[in-house]
Amino acid sequence: MENLKHSYKLKITGSAEIENALDDTKDYSVMFKRLGVRKSERKSNDDGTYTYTFHLENLDIVTLISEEKKVITGKNKSAAKRLRNRAWIHSEDNNLEAEDFYQKFINYVIANFEDIASNIE
Predict the structure, then answer these.
(1) Using an 8 Å Cβ cutoff, are 58 and 73 in contact?
(2) Alpha carbon distance 115, 50 (integer Å)
């Protein structure tokens, strides 16, 4: 029997707000602080192997580097989106349904708003 080798791919989506325009004549390296897996797909190949594609979304800071110098740092622009993403990660890590967990979490925050707010003032 042949030794079959599967292939693995990443697809990265999301956006980060940056302070300046990029120089479109240069190439950039990109560093992500945190990415979340949004879904994975498995596709059968003709040779009996599979191609696995992991869809990642940017959850935090992005750093662009050109000519070995950090040039721009960008961030997700919405705290609400970061909260929803963090809740999604927690639900995935704990085998919970993501939208149900998020709604329960938000309802808990609303019901306990005064207690939570008094702890951060």
Answers:
(1) no
(2) 50
pTM of the predicted model as reported, rounded to 2 decimal places: 0.51
pLDDT for residue 71: 66
Enter the DSSP assignment of 107: H
Band the pLDDT of 88: cuts 50, 70, 90.
confident
34 and 60 share a domain? yes
What's the domain range around 107?
Answer: 78-121
Closest Cα partner for 81 from 108, 64, 58?
A: 58
Tens-digit pLDDT profile for residues 17-70: 777 788 888 888 888 888 888 888 999 999 999 999 999 888 888 888 887 776
Residue that has been written with the tokens 């990029």 in this structure: 22
Query: 121 and 63, same structural domain?
Result: no
Segments in the chain forming alpha helices (H):
79-93, 98-111, 113-120
How many structural domains comprise the chain?
Answer: 2
